[in-house]
Amino acid sequence: MYFVRTAGERDLEKVRALLVESFHATYDDLHGKTKVDDLIAHLFTPAALKARLVRRDAEFLVADNGRNIGGVGFAAMSQVLTKTVMLHLLYVSPSLQRQGIGRDIFAELETCFPDAEIMRLEVEPQNAAATAFYQTHGFIEVGRNENNAAGQSGIPSLIFEKPLEGH
């Protein structure tokens, strides 16, 4: 049984391992292992994970069964969009998918931002499992980001939004 809780610094090594495993399982076939390794090296350094952990306008959650971290979620208030929370990470260990862990993390994240009216995320168009998950949970496609600017991945993404309860 996995329980969702706030991540702590002692979780970061296991969180990074889960993200590496999940990223390779999700994206190797789409972009190749080398590109995925480059993304991981940039996105999930210990310093980058710790910066997410200490951010005040954010929530970093893990699903924990007492021994293992089975999933991770990270969302933060947008710095540019009013009353909008950005869902940056929602990953479940490939061997544990389709057991409700992602749903439970997502449900908790939805309640963590009382000032937010909208949750927004970007998802890769070819990531059919994630797209289906988000559509099942009330998200609709509102646009597209080509991610071609300097320093971006060059990988296009779909932009999804969902109104949050009570707004």
Map the helices and strands.
Blueprint: E1 3-6, H1 12-31, H2 33-43, H3 46-54, E2 58-64, E3 69-77, E4 84-92, H4 101-111, E5 118-123, H5 128-136, E6 140-145, E7 157-163
Parallel strand pairs: 4-5
Antiparallel strand pairs: 1-2, 2-3, 3-4, 5-7, 6-7
Helix pairs in contact: 1-2
What Rg do the Cα atoms give? 15 Å
Largest sheet: 7 strands, mixed
The DSSP helix count reads 5
Order of helices and strands: EHHHEEEHEHEE
Low-confidence stretches: none
Oligomer: single chain
Q: Give me the secondary-structure category.
A: alpha+beta
Domain N-acetyltransferase: 2-165
Keywords: Acyltransferase, Transferase
InterPro entries: Acyl_CoA_acyltransferase (IPR016181), Bact_Acetyltransf (IPR050832), GNAT_dom (IPR000182)
Pfam families: Acetyltransf_10
Description:
It is a single chain. With 167 residues, the chain is an alpha+beta fold. Helices cover 36% and strands 29% of the residues. It contains five helices and seven strands, in the order βαααβββαβαββ. A seven-stranded mixed β-sheet has the order 1-2-3-4-5-7-6, with helices on both faces. Strand 3 (69-77) and strand 4 (84-92) form a beta hairpin. Helix 1 runs antiparallel to helix 2 (33-43). The N and C termini lie far apart (32 Å). The model has no long low-confidence stretch (mean pLDDT 89).
